[in-house]
Amino acid sequence: MGSKISATGHYLPEQVITNDDLAKIMDTSDEWISKRTGIRQRHISKDENTSDLASKAALNILQNRNITADQIDFIIVATMTADAASPSTACLVQEKIGASKAFCFDINAACSGFVYSLSTGIHLMQSNLYQYGLIIGAETMSKAVNWEDRSTAVLFGDGAGGVLLERTEDDCFVAEDIHSDGGRHGALVSDTRKLTSPFGGTVEEEQSYLTMDGRAIFDFAIRSVPDMIRDVMLKGNLVEGDLKKIIAHQANIRLLEAISKKVKLPFSLFASNIADTGNTSAASIPILFDQLVQSKEIQLGTKDKVLMTGFGGGLTWGAIVISL
Ligand code: ACO
User: Fold this and answer.
1) Alpha carbon nearest to ligand 1 atom 41, residue
2) Taking the model in full, what pTM does it have?
């Protein structure tokens, strides 16, 4: 017994901001952004917070499976841009979609969050205690970045995507390889909070904006992700021909090309939508996953194998192979 992914869905805010739009408000250009990253545009929320995007993706998933929210046993939201530290974004989603019997929690593993959450959800389902679990990745990165810092502002976008795990005889789980290195936490930091009690602490100014050492993350990803892909394939006893698609976190197209070269797997195996969405952190993998399902490049129920891999702040990195 175990689970399969029986439906997918996503939601992107309506407003699209192109590289040329950004060049009007900061010292940058379409040429620099598209050449260095592959990004041409991103969706930026006007008035919807992370829980709104996540709820719309969740409703899209339920509609695609034709079930109601009150059938859901648990909701996990992967996010580094929660509406609040408490309640969790997952609890807000529960209220917004009416998933009255679900238990709900968030997982924060930055851009690896969806892989961490899918792994957690799949292993929860292996307990045989649940019928349906919703796994969502959702971010409003637009509220985390400093719009006066061109080195990060041009990279990120907003969005949400997710999958429905449904109890089945066969388990979709094939293999996983998941890591963290808190020793390198300084490479990506966002929304730090200082101690401010009258019994100690400090009242120095807080640094809430996201700061990232892009070069360090690039180098870390080039070193660690190919090794992880090799390791997860080894664990799953898989060779190149066994994989239908690799759905990697969408941070930079040059990074994906470098990873593909290093791991000696054809670039055509790596799906990409970064040109249209930018880096949506924990949402990037499930948005792309749903787009591939909708375009029929991958099909649920075929037992084709898909490798998903995320990497980012923490540092965190993880890969999971599932059978569709
Ligand atoms: N427009 C124009 N010029 C710019 C911009 C911009 N938006 N941003 C930086 N520059 C300039 C810099 O000032 C620098 O100028 P200088 O040479 O005169 O000093 C020059 O461009 C080169 O800057 P670099 O930072 O060295 O550029 P690089 O080629 O490293 O690309 C990038 C930067 C795109 C951020 C890259 O390092 C990257 O993609 N890193 C990976 C990021 C990543 O994967 N993040 C995932 C984790 S995210 C998460 O966990 C939420």
Assistant:
1) 218
2) 0.96
